Amino acid sequence: MFIRTLIILIGIWMLWQIFQGYKASLENEAENQTKQKKQNQAMPEKQHMLPCAFCGMHIPEQEAIHRGDKVYCCQEHRLADENQR
Ligand SMILES: [Zn+2]
């Protein structure tokens, strides 16, 4: 009789542990999602977009190719713009 009670108690304890772990993972996920949302919202403000001098496409400043006072989206457009003159 005592052993059966013990087994039931262990079973309840294990279920409780699983439930706690599940709850913690759900909370972590929700926290990560809100963090990601905040990051996504902050991104467009931080990124300075520049238009390509050749095709006019807007590209983030870090990815842009700077040549003098002009900015290009890729090496091909930089060369194409230079060859035009
Ligand atoms: Zn371009």
Set down the secondary structure blueprint.
Elements: H1 2-46, E1 49-51, E2 58-60, E3 65-67, E4 70-72, H2 75-84
Antiparallel strand pairs: 1-2, 3-4
Molecular structure report:
- The strands form two sheets. This protein has a two-stranded antiparallel sheet.
- It folds into two domains: 46 residues; 39 residues, no CATH class.
- It is built from two helices and four strands.
- The chain is rod-shaped.
- It has 85 residues and is an alpha+beta fold.
- The model has no long low-confidence stretch (mean pLDDT 88).
- The structure holds zinc ion.
- The site of zinc ion has 8 residues, from loops.
Question: Can you tag this structure with a few keywords?
Answer:
85 residues, alpha+beta, two-stranded antiparallel sheet, 65% helix, rod-shaped, binds zinc ion, TRASH domain-containing protein, PP0621-like
The percentage of residues in β strands lies in 5-15%
Distance between the termini: 96 Å
Task: Give the strand tally.
Answer: 4
Main sheet summary = 2 strands, antiparallel
The low-pLDDT segments are none
Number of helices in the DSSP assignment: 2
Roughly how much helix do the residues carry, as a percent range?
A: 55-70%
Name the helix and strand elements from N-terminus to C-terminus, one letter apiece.
HEEEEH
The count of domains is 2
Structural class: alpha+beta
The geometry reads as: rod-shaped
Residue-averaged pLDDT: 88
Radius of gyration: 29 Å
Bound molecules: zinc ion
| Physical arrangement of strands within the biggest beta sheet | 1-2
